[in-house]
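To illustrate this point, what follows is a protein record of this kind.

___
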Amino acid sequence: MDSNISKFIFTVFGESFRLMNPVLTNYSEFSKILSKKIQTRKGGNIQYSFDVELDKIFRKNIDGFGISGRIFSEESGFYEFGSKKYRAVYDPFCNSSLASKTFLEAAAGISIFGYDYRFLTSAILDYQTGIVAVVEDGKTNFYQIQTKEKIEFNNPQKKSLENSLVIITLENQEERKYIVKAKQILEASGRILISSGHIYWLRLAAGLIDGYLDPFGGEKLYEMFACTLAQKAGCTVTNLKGEEFDSEQYLKIFEGDPDFIYYPLAARNKRLHALLLGSLKSPKT
């Protein structure tokens, strides 16, 4: 990975972490920051003042480090500036809609491509722990944002549903109508959590969870590009037809149709992925 891009990632994540992490351990500050809701946007997502502040940090550093080209921000949409060097997609705070309940699932994510759509890197910051996952030279590595110390994860792989921890997204009443189609997964998996977000691509890549799927509501593509972290860590990431996620191909689709919905199903290894995929009955595709 280009050293300038690496410096950009650690700088923007470091500044964002220093802004957000203090409120995670201070109930008074936590309450204050949640009182500053700006608006509820289309789809029910809530925008808070910290969303805007984080977006400013990203935009400032994108400019300062010369990540010029075509940029997409989850907070402010598409914009272009400077020379046509890069394409980038970022979300400075994934899961604002859940922030009133917990920051534990909060993460920042960014993926950077050449202007020719060639994938360069993805990175995710866990706001709670300060762990950063980043793709470097085709491999996912982990660091602590404050010390820059490299972290090694050696969690054993699970190859059966009975021993696995699976994250499935059932965010609303509409999605729960399809729950019978996931009956086997819900009954057989050793542990199940109902949640979603960038943080699970980091956790899947690190082996902290074994599977992640959003089979009924799906995710917009800006939420998907960071899955490359899991792919580069050896995980299998596909849609419900079993077709592998191709970040370069889907970036082109995203620019043409920002509302395109992708239905991800991911696991740490092909065997577990096959079990999850086979367990879904008549999935929505």
Notes: The radius of gyration is 18 Å.
